[in-house]
């Protein structure tokens, strides 16, 4: 009977991806596991002699408890949101000499499915998600190229080697990991359309999801480090001790590592089904809570830095040069702190199945260009970086002109 129901659900499953439609498949898997566990426990307890009947049975949709011979039992339609219409009809089965009778009436008659979209709607959704994938692929590719170039600039020029730019490089690296993790996850989950993504449970699949969660966490925590470093600079009046650097590294890379480690162990122990990408799981809060904490702390830093900056700028004893230095150091981070994670907080207040399209658009399409924005603010629009590039470019031009002059002179004298 499950063969009758699942094909009717498959168009939605293929188009909308793993969520929230995979929750339907997981619902039936959970009910089946509960029923099979009941069957195993009953098989260990021998039935009294002379008491014949039908044993507990899973028919693919419902679990039918054991029943004495000649009796009947009725069950209601499964209660699954957005799948079955509310129906008061009951399905009945009898325990006969030949075992359980067929369901009467059949599931497809007694349980009315919600009206699914037409084939045109399905094709439109498929085109929509293909377009979205193209957009975020272009976004992550652009971000990766910009971030790699920015890291190269900070690494090549000796005068740019400092604690602040070292933290920027770590922040850029977290974005590179995030973009790479998205490409790896797509290649593992959706490279083969014949694979059932709802029931995929390979080690490679779980490792790809774990790596993705780690990169997302690292991304948020390195933004937190950027905020902490800015606040420390303002508190210590630009005399930030290098001894803090290892603490920043432990926060940026260590906290996500510990969090993902706890999440992996929790899933292995208590919820080891599927590919671990079911965000409706209660254990998803092991990942979500630290992210929300980082966003909340960053927001407090944002308010505190804004207050400190206003006080220092209004200070009459502060020179104009120092005021410009404060403004230059704070404008990028103050822009990024509210920009990053605001939508995450908004969506965290709603269930995962609410606002799926908007959530995907913000997290995939707009989120894919965040790395490019970071490279732009911290590197390409940085006056210090621009001045160093112009100075080295001038030195290189003078060197080339000198080499050409020497070569021409040698040819003339020859």
From TrEMBL:
<keyword id="KW-0732">Signal</keyword>
<dbReference type="GO" id="GO:0016520">
    <property type="term" value="F:growth hormone-releasing hormone receptor activity"/>
</dbReference>
<feature type="transmembrane region" description="Helical">
    <location>
        <begin position="167"/>
        <end position="184"/>
    </location>
</feature>
<keyword id="KW-1015">Disulfide bond</keyword>
<feature type="domain" description="G-protein coupled receptors family 2 profile 2">
    <location>
        <begin position="132"/>
        <end position="382"/>
    </location>
</feature>
<feature type="transmembrane region" description="Helical">
    <location>
        <begin position="134"/>
        <end position="155"/>
    </location>
</feature>
<keyword id="KW-0472">Membrane</keyword>
<keyword id="KW-1003">Cell membrane</keyword>
<feature type="transmembrane region" description="Helical">
    <location>
        <begin position="361"/>
        <end position="381"/>
    </location>
</feature>
<dbReference type="Pfam" id="PF02793">
    <property type="entry name" value="HRM"/>
</dbReference>
<feature type="transmembrane region" description="Helical">
    <location>
        <begin position="285"/>
        <end position="305"/>
    </location>
</feature>
<dbReference type="GO" id="GO:0051240">
    <property type="term" value="P:positive regulation of multicellular organismal process"/>
</dbReference>
<comment type="similarity">
    <text>Belongs to the G-protein coupled receptor 2 family.</text>
</comment>
<dbReference type="GO" id="GO:0007166">
    <property type="term" value="P:cell surface receptor signaling pathway"/>
</dbReference>
<keyword id="KW-0812">Transmembrane</keyword>
<feature type="domain" description="G-protein coupled receptors family 2 profile 1">
    <location>
        <begin position="34"/>
        <end position="115"/>
    </location>
</feature>
<dbReference type="GO" id="GO:0008528">
    <property type="term" value="F:G protein-coupled peptide receptor activity"/>
</dbReference>
<dbReference type="GO" id="GO:0007188">
    <property type="term" value="P:adenylate cyclase-modulating G protein-coupled receptor signaling pathway"/>
</dbReference>
<dbReference type="GO" id="GO:0004999">
    <property type="term" value="F:vasoactive intestinal polypeptide receptor activity"/>
</dbReference>
<keyword id="KW-0325">Glycoprotein</keyword>
<keyword id="KW-0807">Transducer</keyword>
<feature type="transmembrane region" description="Helical">
    <location>
        <begin position="245"/>
        <end position="265"/>
    </location>
</feature>
<keyword id="KW-1133">Transmembrane helix</keyword>
<dbReference type="InterPro" id="IPR001879">
    <property type="entry name" value="GPCR_2_extracellular_dom"/>
</dbReference>
<dbReference type="InterPro" id="IPR050332">
    <property type="entry name" value="GPCR_2"/>
</dbReference>
<dbReference type="InterPro" id="IPR017983">
    <property type="entry name" value="GPCR_2_secretin-like_CS"/>
</dbReference>
<protein>
    <recommendedName>
        <fullName>Growth hormone-releasing hormone receptor</fullName>
    </recommendedName>
</protein>
<dbReference type="InterPro" id="IPR036445">
    <property type="entry name" value="GPCR_2_extracell_dom_sf"/>
</dbReference>
<keyword id="KW-0297">G-protein coupled receptor</keyword>
<feature type="transmembrane region" description="Helical">
    <location>
        <begin position="220"/>
        <end position="238"/>
    </location>
</feature>
<dbReference type="GO" id="GO:0005886">
    <property type="term" value="C:plasma membrane"/>
</dbReference>
<dbReference type="GO" id="GO:0017046">
    <property type="term" value="F:peptide hormone binding"/>
</dbReference>
<dbReference type="InterPro" id="IPR001771">
    <property type="entry name" value="GPCR_2_VIP_rcpt_1"/>
</dbReference>
<keyword id="KW-0675">Receptor</keyword>
<dbReference type="InterPro" id="IPR017981">
    <property type="entry name" value="GPCR_2-like_7TM"/>
</dbReference>
<dbReference type="InterPro" id="IPR000832">
    <property type="entry name" value="GPCR_2_secretin-like"/>
</dbReference>
<feature type="transmembrane region" description="Helical">
    <location>
        <begin position="326"/>
        <end position="349"/>
    </location>
</feature>
<dbReference type="GO" id="GO:0040008">
    <property type="term" value="P:regulation of growth"/>
</dbReference>
<comment type="function">
    <text>Receptor for GRF, coupled to G proteins which activate adenylyl cyclase. Stimulates somatotroph cell growth, growth hormone gene transcription and growth hormone secretion.</text>
</comment>
<dbReference type="Pfam" id="PF00002">
    <property type="entry name" value="7tm_2"/>
</dbReference>
